[in-house]
Amino acid sequence: MASDKKQARNGNVFVSYSRKDKLFVRKLVAGLEASDVKVWVDWEGIPPSADWMAEITEAVQGSNAFICVISPDWLASKVCAQEYNLGIQNNKKLIPVLYREPEKRTKMPEKISATNWVYMRAKQDQFKVGIEKIVAAITTDLDWVKEQTRLLQRAAEWDSKKRNPGFLLQGADLDDGEKWMSEAAARPGQQVLPLQADYIHASRRQAIRQQRNLVIGVSIAFLVSVVLGIFALFQRNSAISNEQLANSNAQLARNNAATAVANEYARATQQAIAQSNEVAAKAQRGAAEAKLYQGQTGKLDISTLLALDSWQQLQSPQAEDILRQNISLIPIPVAHVSQKAKIESLEVSPNDKTFLTASDDKTACVWNMDNGKQLYCVQQDNIIEDAIYSKDGKLIITGGDDGSVRIWNAADGSLIKRFDFGAVIWALDVSPDSGWLAVGRNDNFATIINLQDFAQKPLNLREAGPVFAISFSPDGKWVGIGTGGGKVMLWRFNQGFFFMGPEHTGDVFAIAFSPDSQWIVSGGADSTARVAKVTSGGQRFAVKHGDWVEDVAFSPDSTWFATASDDNNVYVWDTVTGQQKLVMQHNGFAQHVKISPDGQWIASTGTDQTVRIWDAASGAQMIQAPIDGSGSALAFSNDGKRLLAGDSTGNIFVWDVSYLSARINYLVFPELVHDALFDPSGSWVAVNTDAKTVQTFTMDQILHTHSGTDGTKVLDANDLTYNLAISPDSQSLAVNTKNLNEAILENLQSKRELNLQQNAVVNDVAISADTKMVATAGNNNTISLWNAQSGSKLFDLQDNAPVNAVAFDPANNNWLASASKNHVAIWDLSQQKELHKLTHSGLVTQLRFSPDGVWLAGGNTDGIIYLWN
Predict the structure, then answer these.
(1) How far is Cα 546 from Cα 528, in angstroms, rounded to an integer?
(2) Less crowded by CB within 10 Å, the N or C end of the chain?
(3) Using one digit for the tens of pLDDT, what is the confidence trace for 737-752?
(4) pLDDT above 70 for 623
């Protein structure tokens, strides 16, 4: 994690902590950033190495203060000890924060023992007071400390560059450095590091040396001017005699002027050519940079701007390709609004007309879905952790750090009822009939409130730890509860009994019921998602992750669920077997996952500052949208047409995703699928896979079958098959086998099979409109034409590069298109010669004509489709 060069108003700090205290450290970092303190913290937990040490050293040197989060695990960690020693060696202001009490008689580092501690223990101390004390400690003598940090970084850079004089202080910088060093003597506990002192002294010596050289230079210049004056006197007489010679040369100069005019014209022409070449070079550099940013997370907007600038300078195929691909990944924006601090939760109203956000700025706001206009906000006395609608849309309910749950009229935001529990409210959920409210509390209670009768006393159930997650089952019969103690409980609250669900070895962060109310899945700090049958409790199976499981979500048909993990991945799992189906990757912690109402799309977000939409059947990325901070909330609208996201900086984004294609059905195959093709009559589909077979599926199977093993096998090959071709009369099918250097032509009626040997890798195959010819594309720069009845070769066409694809013109049996690197050729088969050459960038591997032969489409390896008239 690279540190931000921008200095926050209240300075910046390095945080050293044990991974077991990560949940507290996240809250600590959020509190400091809200107080305008820049925080450097290593979330990755990478093992010590040369690269690690260099990165940590740079971060410590660039910080104004060093915070160590004291706990038994921090004191036992060798990595934390290395970080602490770096802080001491670099003379950083030390701020010890006590989170968990060390064991008695634990030996403390001397510097920590002698420094005032900030107490931020979970139950004894007030978190907000602790933040205020830390900020006060950081800002004490902040100007002097910032100068210390600046000089340390400059001195370290000078030292790393073998003490090159070019990196020394000069002028006012040097004066400020000497003043800072002199002030250090009057500051108890503030020391000047030897490296800093060497750097300042070397800078002064260099300044004196430069001043001495300047004085010597001025003296020499004066002497030279005196000598030149004497010399000029002698030259005057010589100049008079030379005047006559100059006149005679004037005529010669006039003669040369005409030659100069001609030369100037030639020079201007060359300059114009050079400028044109420079513009082309700039455009090419811009396209190259756009391509580079295209592959970086959250940089699609930068890539698009660079490609657009390149296109405006030179309309190159490269810039055009990048623009087309980027535009396909960027969602359509509907609204971009914001609150003053992190968005904790986001929910869409039942009628899709409004949405509700909860923020660390102590407000929950209702917004218009169509234009993002703020309708009203309600306020509490502290951070609002959760805000939800009742299922009938008549109420909104909020809860947060002030310990209260408040119920508001959704129409106008007027307060209806307030419940005070005296502990942080982490989670809320309303029953499907809008009759009951479930509340998760930090004081180890789960609470049920009757929304039809506020006079009825809330029902409380004591848990083994703070209740971080709580949810009603879709049938309204169960309440799922996830706690900080690792317990998951299934509570039949209206009948007074419960089942124990899966047991985690760390905090439970998320739970979800399947839509059919038969399953419950939970995820947490033990890096595991655990699944249970609702009617029996216990644990059916567990799936391990590489880090904390932050969020879980079920598909609409309950057959699979998705998880988001701090190991940067989003996973899809089979509900019954626990088998992993898909994995999709972020470039940072994946912390929220949602599934569209129709089950076609999976949305996710996290610390890499992107929101992504994935195809739920294949895992292919459909959308990548950059946001301004870590993704902190996510939701689909109920009709699936909008995607909403909130981030850690308070921004709220609404995108239109309705243009994503609707899927009718899908087929799952046990092997990799190479090609799928409708026959011209539209009555069946052919599919070839790594099983070395070609299967056909009827339209009824296509619409209702999910298993790819249920098709009819029509061709068996001795090796892997790739591209398919079907004759216009649906009677024949062809496929290429690259490893065998051949294409196979199968008559589906007679079952007759012809092997078309090319003596080179065959990349593609096509059948003519009149079904009399077959074309194969060879890696030997050759297009071979074959008799479709006998399999005998008719003739070859020669290209200047390997041929990747071929296609017959359906409106003209004598026309054939072929694709090679950087061009597509159109051939006249009657004359066996090339008619046209269509240039493009990249490698086109697929060619298709429109049914009327007017349009030709080519698809390349960069994901671009070209259309030619």
Answers:
(1) 9
(2) C
(3) 888 889 999 998 888 9
(4) yes
The pLDDT assigned to 3 comes to 35
| CA dist., res. 772 & res. 814, Å (int) | 11
Would you give the distance in Å from CA 779 to the centre of its chain?
A: 38
28-50 burial by CB neighbour count: b if 16+ within 10 A, else e?
bbbbbbebebbbbbbbeeeeeee
Rounded to the nearest integer, the mean pLDDT of the chain is 85
3-state secondary structure at position 170: coil
Alpha-carbon dihedral 206, 212, 213, 214, rounded to 10 degrees: 110
C-alpha to C-alpha distance for 861 and 869, rounded to whole angstroms: 21
* Band (5; pLDDT cuts 50, 70, 90): very low
- Strand, coil or helix: 312: helix
- CA gap 576, 531 in Å, rounded: 9
Task: Kindly state the percentage of the chain with pLDDT values over 70.
Answer: 84
Q: What is the pLDDT of residue 806?
A: 94
Q: Which residue has the higher pLDDT, 801 or 159?
A: 801
Helices (H), 569-724: 699-704
Q: How far is it between the farthest Cα atoms of the chain? A: 125
Measured distance CA(833)–CA(519) in Å, rounded: 66
Task: Report how far apart, in Å, the C-alpha atoms of 223 and of each of 213, 227, 234 are.
Answer: 16, 6, 18
pTM above 0.85, yes or no: no
Q: Is the dihedral of CA 769, 772, 776, 780 positive or negative?
A: negative
Q: Which tokens hold the place of 821?
A: 């690197």
- Do residues 657 and 650 touch, judged by C-beta distance below 8 A? no
What whole-number distance in Å separates Cα of residue 857 and Cα of residue 849? 6
Helix H, strand E, coil C: the string for 19-82 is HHHHHHHHHHHHHHHHCCCEEEECCCCCCCCHHHHHHHHHHHHCCCEEEEEECHHHHHCHHHHH
